[in-house]
Amino acid sequence: MTAALLAAAGAVLLWPDGRAVARRRLLRAGPAGARAPGRVPLPLVAAVVAGGAGALLATPLVAVLAAGCAALAARARSAGRRAADDVTRQAVLAEALGAVAAELRAGRTLTEAVRTAAADCPDPVCAAALGRAARAPVTDATGGGADGDGTPAALARLSAAVALGTRTGCSLAAVVAAVEDDLRARLRRRRELLVATAGPRASARLLAGLPLLGLAMGSGVGADPWHVLTRTGAGQGLLVAGVLLEVAGIAWTGRLVRRVAR
Q1: What's the pLDDT tens digit per position in 211-232?
Q2: What is the spatial distance between Cα 118 and Cα 112, in angstroms, rounded to a whole number?
Q3: Long-range contacts of 180-183 (CB under 8 A, 24+ apart)
Q4: Distance from C-alpha of 127 to C-alpha of 50, rounded to nearest angstrom
Q5: Residues 6+ apart with CB under 8 A from 147
Q6: Direct distance between the N- and C-terminal alpha carbons of the chain, in angstroms, rounded to an integer
Q7: DSSP state of 150
Q8: Are 114 and 130 in contact (CB under 8 A)?
Q9: Beta partners for 146?
Q10: Burial class (CB in 10 A: 0-12, 13-18, 19+), 2
Q11: Phi (first) and psi of residue 116, to 5 degrees
Q12: Which residues of the chain have pLDDT under 70?
């Protein structure tokens, strides 16, 4: 019992904080949409591996279907990781905006506040864009996505807030805090929508796996459904139709979820 308690205490002490986790994740991801030079895309690797396995173990038709499904699955996984990195980047930006507002309330100038917040920001892309947004106006202050270098479009609203404070003389700390509150509200709404759509997404994954369960049950009772689907003309037609319907259903569900989460 004592050893277990000591191990638990050590794990708590060594557990990384949220800022360290975000820093590692953002440094690994890099700017949105960026890919290391010479790196082979994941969908291509998945398609080659799945297609090769299908060609060795089954028929050329199975190899083509497996390659296509693997490429689509890898592409969906990459898109999900990019979306998660985007949420993390926006959360880091919200923390940076909060630091800027706190520095402004403490009597620092805008340049000093942005420099301090950028030094503590775990994302170098957001840190650099934060300085640019505070120095120069951004034309698109209404967008909700990301600009050319992958930083959230909330930086455009920060630039507009700086221009508003400079032109009207209002409290710049209050304006920056309002931009921070707006970004946090958007992130909170996005998380709530993802939680609300977790059920449909789980149901879609379950339904996608039911055909494999049917093949396993058919083989368990002594039938050979795999032979019928891959070696007969009617079975191959049904296999192609089933795969196309399943891919279309998953794509339709994903599209509905993305439209709701916007």
Answers
A1: 888 888 988 888 888 888 888 8
A2: 10
A3: 180/94, 180/97, 180/98, 180/101, 182/154, 182/157, 183/90, 183/93, 183/94, 183/97, 183/152, 183/154, 183/157
A4: 40
A5: 129, 138, 140, 153, 155, 156
A6: 49
A7: S
A8: yes
A9: 152
A10: exposed
A11: -65, -45
A12: 1-38, 136-153, 257-262
> Which amino acid, residue 54?
G
- CA distances for 149 relative to 31, 126, 152, angstroms: 7, 9, 9
Could you give the 3-state DSSP secondary structure of residue 146? strand
User: 0.90 exceeded by the pTM?
Assistant: no
- Residues facing residue 152 across a β-bridge: 146
Q: pLDDT tens-digit profile of 65-92?
A: 889 888 888 888 888 788 788 888 888 8
Which residue's entry shows tokens 């650099």? 128
- DSSP string covering 153-182, please? THHHHHHHHHHHHHHH---HHHHHHHHHHH
Distance CA 219, CA 128 (A): 59
**253 is written with which tokens?**
């569900």
| Sequence-ordered list of residues with C-beta below 8 angstroms from that of 250, at least 6 positions apart, any chain | 204, 208
